[in-house]
Amino acid sequence: MLKKLLIFLLIITPIIASAQYGGRKGRGMRTGKSFYNRKKPRPEFIIGVGASNFLGELGGANQIGTFFVRDLEFKATRPSAQIAIRKKFNSRFAVKGGYYYQLLSGDDKLTKEPFRNNRNLHFRSSIHEVSGQLEFFFTKEQQGHRYQIKNAKGMKSYNFQAYGFVGVGGIFYNPQAKYKGNWVNLQPLGTEGQGLPGGPKKYSRFSVVIPYGLGVKDAITKEWSIGLEIGMRKTFTDYIDDVSGVYYDNAAIRTAHGDMAADLADPSLLNYPESLGGASVAAYQTNPGEVRGHSKHKDAYMFINVTASYKIPAKRRTRSKF
Length: 322
What we know:
The chain is of the alpha+beta class. Helix content is 18%, strand content 35%.
């Protein structure tokens, strides 16, 4: 159902934008007035680079129970990039579609929280996202004079804008862990007993995602703008880091999938503090059925990108020679 909704929204969003723009343009022609400050909004191409961070089970703060950005582990910050196109259909609203790339990571060695640190899991995952977004601009864009006539009224077009956005998209992710110096794909290994008797089914590496956030942009010429965008991504999967449910019988994983799968399913350190029970408690915590992740809390991630956008120049109209 979610995949059908995603496909429907990605198809219908540009159609709605085009219809609304076309309808307003037609009304402007009938009344003798043009739409949107006497100019047709120009498409913008956008590129961005920045940093991303993961919000999930691995790593995080030095205590359990923290929430959202308080659970960020800044040492796990990784690159982010985007390529998009924006089309305004009035002075306040725009649609944007694009491709977004994030490299996410997490490592229990980066936290001092005893349970997570003893669990000793780690991962990295490349996120490939295609999404469509609806943007709302809090201020109207100032349009300059078409022919850049000196001292002409309305000449100023360089302006600062802030906006918010929400949308829908799809992601492909592929959690990996390092084993004997090499990065290996975790999903085929069934580290929580996926596909084995009594275990969960194998998870999909595709998920619907809800993008939302805020941005600012400042025009430095009539064509070029620079900006900053803070994006959050709500996902509908808990397996971006390959951790979600409970420990499975590690001997059964070893028999079914080999030593590598068993070693990555439970690489616990057995160095739990003596004040909290020591090694005996640490060993107990990885028994079959004990908590490995938190399936009720879906994974999320965020990024901050510096952006540059380019407006396609408007074609100048020339008078007929005749």
